[in-house]
Amino acid sequence: MHELIDTLAEQLERPKEVPSRLVDHVWSTYEIDRDAVGEFLVTRLPDLEDYEHELILSPLYTPKLTDQALSAELLGQASVAETEWSGIVQQLESRPTTGSILTSDGKIYKVPLREVVLERYIRLLRLNGSIPDTVWVLLQQEAFAEERTLFKAIARRAIWERAPRAAILKAFLEWSQDTYLAGDGLRLLSVAEDHRPKDVAYLVKRLPQWQEALRKEIEAADDPKPFFVEQIRDSHGFERDQRQREEDRIAEKQDELVFLSRLQEALKRR
């Protein structure tokens, strides 16, 4: 447990850049200049209520999948029961655990993290998740070596808690041992969490419909729209910026379509 506490503290104390969402919230709620947010976090935040702490700092201290991967790598197949979370939070708070917040001017501001922020972070880490033996064995295959740590976090996500849906993850690992491409784990997780297929049979049935919907979205996005004011377009570069965003969005959807096609072919061979 001590090693887990140290790992969590290191994650939480790593410098984090202030996102625009936090700046906008502080500016609109507390009438603080955007370039004074760092000073606000040091001088005003300590006097605010717990709910305000959580609301202000949640954009910084919401664990991403990469954060979940660090604890997943440490825990392996083990899990930490919810009854133990309060003890972890208390230990982190008593250290104390201090956030390092990096503002746009390059300055770092130190902010002690309260119980309410730590509690939320621990709750979202999926420490109570687990990895079934069958999935654990499959993850040891060489094909998954480069992304194995991330895959352990993927395997612990709540989406796989139901056995019929967990069978999708197992089937995916079985067929992709020889065809796995970097990022496939994230692509599968996206499909599972976006569409929530109830089992393998449902997934096989729905894949053609999802592919067709994606093709239509790609075709629609690939059809350029005329800019409504030519002068604004030329002077501000709106067309160029919009085109780049559209191209990125089309590329993402094309990547998803290719993955769905590969997934469909693989599941047909089962």
What does this structure look like?
This protein is mainly alpha-helical. It folds into 2 domains: 2-123, no CATH class; 133-268, no CATH class. The protein contains 14 helices and 3 strands. A hairpin with a 5-residue loop joins β2 (98-102) and β3 (108-112). It is globular and about 60 Å long. The two termini are 41 Å apart.
Summarize, please:
This protein is mainly alpha-helical and 270 residues long.
Oligomer: single chain
Number of strands: 3
Please compute the radius of gyration using only Cα atoms: 23 Å
How much helicity do the residues have? 55-70%
Q: Any idea how many domains?
A: 2
Element string (H = helix, E = strand): HEHHHHHEEHHHHHHHH
* Overall spatial form: globular
Percentage of residues in strands? under 5%
Secondary-structure-derived class:
mainly alpha
Strand order of the largest sheet: 1-2-3
Our count of helices gives: 14
Distance N to C terminus: 41 Å
List the helices and strands and how they pair.
Layout: H1 2-13, E1 16-17, H2 20-30, H3 37-43, H4 50-57, H5 65-75, H6 85-94, E2 98-102, E3 108-112, H7 115-123, H8 133-139, H9 148-155, H10 163-175, H11 184-195, H12 200-221, H13 230-236, H14 238-268
Parallel strand pairs: 1-2
Antiparallel strand pairs: 2-3
Helix pairs in contact: 1-5, 4-7, 5-9, 6-7, 8-10, 12-14
Q: Which key terms come to mind for this protein?
A:
single chain; 270 residues; mainly alpha; 3 strands
